[in-house]
Amino acid sequence: MSWPSCSPAPGAPPRKPLTECRPSGSPSLGSNIPTLDAVDPETGSAASAVADADTNTESARAGTAAGPVPGVAGSVTDGPRGAGARIASPRRSGRPARDRRPTRDRRPARPRLPGDGPRARLVRAGLVAPASLAVIVLGAFPLVFILLAAFSRSSLGRPFQEFVGGDNVVQALTDHDVIGSLIRSVGYALAVAVLSVVFGVIVALALAGAVRAGSLVRTLLLLPLITPPVVVGILWKLIFSPSGGLIDTLLRTFGYRGEPLSILANPDLALAGVGIADIWEWTPLIALLVFAALLGRDPEVSEAAALDGAHGWRLFREITLPAIAATIAAAFLVRLVLAFKVFDLIYVMTSGGPGQATTMPAYQIYQAALQHSDVGQAAALTLILAVVITVITTPIILISRRFGND
């Protein structure tokens, strides 16, 4: 077997040989692989070199000699691999191969969004400005007014008459009625908030168990929430009425023949009667919040716990309660603040009586500002109440955040 001639055809320009000329014999398979030097510098064609190498390789495998393939630009061989060789363009194949070195990873530039320009930012600021102005006017202005009024002698017609320092605050803290109302308010708020949350969780669990009746019961639960507080106070005042009220009628029906039971006129029961009306009004809110949390939990967890033998109280304590603990804590916080602010029920049902039995700080603020026209004293009571609410609610906020993080 003879090796093809390495000399160019007559009349053709000289070109660089593909490989070194070898004597006659069986060429090795790897010797016919073209390199980057096999590109014709004149014609810039590498197709004939690739086709020649493929043909010689196939012939060497089959044990036959491969004939020479002329190095004409754009020619292909009839071999099975050479038939699929693409004809390289002289302009593209004449370029030297680029050195493909690994490039350093570069972070792609962040695409510029349509709203990133200064005009878009100005538009967004203009849209937020009304809400920010409302917060400043409705929040910051009353706070500044209360602070200035608390440290000055002020009335409804003439606020900020003269600066008196902390005299209003000292006078409020040395008043036994104010101290008594603060203590009464703390006990009332904690008791009402705890009972509202307990009853709300029970109602929410009942709603979650009765799926079919859930829509009807949820509609009925909304009635106390959409009823004005003044109407709620009048309703429960009629229920507690000693002459013809619902409770008195039921007692007479079951054989009670004693004196009429006047709950709101009894100093020991009046605050409890107001609390019952307050619980009835706001328990549906707690129930709806907890019910929404029950719907948001994964039912597969409860099903897996039930398969492991957890039922009843154990299932609620180990599975359900940890899942809704954050919602219960937040609902308790909201309910506690609402209980501290109770005014309308007391104004309608008892007017702070009998005596001072149902007088709360909110009712005292109303008396000082609107009945006695002492805005400075009312502002001082407001600051003291705000401090008390902050001290009571801060641990609950921390506990609520802990449950939320868990």
From TrEMBL:
Biased composition (Basic and acidic residues): 96-108
Residue ranges with Low complexity bias: 62-91
Domain ABC transmembrane type-1: 182-396
Membrane-topology annotation of the record: Multi-pass membrane protein
One Pfam family recorded for the sequence: BPD_transp_1
Region called Disordered, residue ranges: 1-117
Membrane-crossing residue ranges in chain numbering: 127-151, 186-208, 220-240, 269-295, 315-340, 378-399
Family: Belongs to the binding-protein-dependent transport system permease family.
Listed name of the protein: Sugar ABC transporter permease
Organism: Mycetocola lacteus
